[in-house]
Design goal:
three-stranded parallel β-sheet, globular
Length: 83
């Protein structure tokens, strides 16, 4: 990533279907498997399952202790408009 020593995997795990429809236990398996395979870029967004997708990622990374091994890419106000 630029001139830093941070390495970004050539593949990213998209989490748009975390919790909707994929249940948390299966999401955790997918996330752990991706990390084991060398993927360190995780894409998410606050609108994914009303924010529950991000919560699943957080709980899984806390449980597996790998939160410092991944890069999170997120979006806010992803398609939601407030008046």
């Amino acid at each position: 990533m630029g001139r830093t020593s941070t390495k970004v995997s050539p593949f990213c795990l998209g989490t748009d279907e975390f919790d909707d429809p994929t249940q948390e236990k299966e999401c955790a398996k997918m996330l752990n498997r991706a990390i084991e395979a060398g993927i360190n870029l995780i894409d998410t967004g606050d609108a994914y399952a009303g924010g529950e997708g991000e919560s699943i990622i957080g709980r899984t990374l806390k449980e597996n202790g790998l939160h410092q091994s991944v890069l999170l890419s997120t979006k806010c106000d992803h398609g939601q408009r407030r008046s």
